Amino acid sequence: MARVFVYGTLKKGQPNYKHMINTAKGLAKFQGRGRTVEKYPLVIAGKYNIPYMLNIPGTGHHVAGEIYSVDEQMLQFLDEFEGCPDMYQRTLMRIQVVEWEGKGGAGEARAAADGVLECFVYSTATYPPEWVGLPYYASYDSSGKHGLAYVLRESR
């Protein structure tokens, strides 16, 4: 099992969460909530209002999201879904645990005295330079005050 941190449309209550609970795509077990140890710019960009975490450590906010344990099948699905490695790149990032719900893995979360885990995160280093000038968010909600509703793939 691998650990993945999601911050956008794959979180609970967001438009693509259905993929996280579709066992035909693999297994994803919700473990808890966290935020990036380093600050990153989280922007909403493109004509489909897609959330992107730009791989610019030290800029932006401590981005909030959810931590999942996923099997190899789900990890492969997520790589494909996220357009890895062209649109997003899957990289290891340090995630501060905010709330842990993982059963049987609670000791694993406590293993790091500072409550920090390494998780795979889909961020991007391949973005148009003008995205750096977009507003930065600390957390993503597709129906947030930003008014930039995400466009589902099947509606594009």
UniProtKB/TrEMBL annotation:
**Broadest EC class assigned to this enzyme:** lyase
Q: What family is it from? A: Belongs to the gamma-glutamylcyclotransferase family.
User: Superkingdom of the source?
Assistant: Eukaryota
Q: Which reaction does it catalyse?
A: epsilon-(gamma-L-glutamyl)-L-lysine = 5-oxo-L-proline + L-lysine
**Gamma-glutamylcyclotransferase AIG2-like domain: residues covered:** 4-122
Q: Which source organism? A: Platysteira castanea
Which gene is this protein's source?
Ggact
Q: Name one GO biological process term.
A: modified amino acid catabolic process
Q: What is this protein called?
A: Gamma-glutamylaminecyclotransferase
* Annotated GO CC locations: cytosol
